[in-house]
Amino acid sequence: MRLLTTGGCGFIGSNFVLDWINEKRGQLVNIDCLNYAGQIANLRDIEDNPLYTFVHGNINNRSLVSRTLAFNSPECLIHFAAESNSIDRTVKSENLLINNVIGTFNLLEECLVYWKSLPPENQEKFRFVHISTADVYGTSPQETSGEINTYEPSDVYAASKASADHFVRAYYHTYGLPTIIIHAGNIYGPRQYSEKLIPVILQHAISGEQLAVYGNGENIRDWLYVGDAVAAIQLIAEHGIPGEVYHIGGEQERTNLNMIKTLCQILEQKISHPGISSFESLIKLVKEGEKNDISYTTDNEKIRKELGWNPNTSLNEGLDVTISWYLQQWSKDSDIVKLGNKF
Fold first, then answer.
1. pLDDT tens across 200-226, in order?
2. Which residues, in sequence order, are CB contacts of 259 under 8 Å at separation 6+?
3. Could you give the CA distance from residue 311 to residue 330 in angstroms, rounded to a whole number?
4. Which residues are within 8 A (CB) of 307 and not within 5 positions of it... i.e. 6 or more apart?
5. Strand pairing category for 295-296 and 220-225
6. Domain range annotation of the chain
7. Mean pLDDT of 10-34
8. How many CB atoms lie within 10 A of CB 308?
9. Domain covering 3-192+223-253+295-313: architecture
């Protein structure tokens, strides 16, 4: 299968691209504008691979998208590109609108033109796979499950992704463009942008800084290892049904407090830090400064029944790999993890 990805230098995208190329699944072209979360270094290992082509550009550049589609004739497009949900509250809502909503619209428009130009048998094979988030459902528990949850975005990031979802769905129902939406849970793993919870906690712990847990620490997340997410996305791209929505989650629900304690325990096995008794001793509950959403979980029932996918990585296994990856990366650029190194 010939693939076109957007945002393939980001966290989930780069893990997907690496797996696709290393497993020799087919030609892959990757469009990425290399914003704050898109790192060309994530794909350095395959930059000379003949199966891989990198295109530096923005999906809002419709002529670039059009030329890339026409020249490479992809059989499937996987849309990873997005302005990320950021802990930096100074990120402008306008950026989310431009990159997540208008960017998706422009991509849909060019894909529609491309798709209509294909012979009928190729139209039948083509898929537009949109990577979205469970954030679109909000953070309070809902009575429904599966893929029929109610859209209740509670912040501007979630609102932008929900809006993009609606455009993707509308292009299927209005024009017949074979689109699929994936709502992913809380994905973690190697190459995640450094502002996210796991790398932030690791950096603070290694530096001997306070590990802030907001609220009472009982807010729940469902953690999905990125390797399992990649396997699900590949399966959906190859066998998913146009017009459908699939949820992917790790079935590893943990409170925030429990998650941070687990991180500390695994980190304790890998490095030591002079001056503190344990990394867990750095944890402190902070009652203000963050919204205290209740839960953030995902139901895998549909993809399990229809496509046979299940997450295979336990939280401890995934965190062990993830922590080791970050320590190795940081040790190349800093002496911080060399203190008391146990490995």
1. 999 999 999 999 888 778 888 899 999
2. 197, 221, 223
3. 28
4. 235, 236, 239, 240, 246
5. parallel
6. 3-192+223-253+295-313
7. 97
8. 9
9. 3-Layer(aba) Sandwich (3.40)
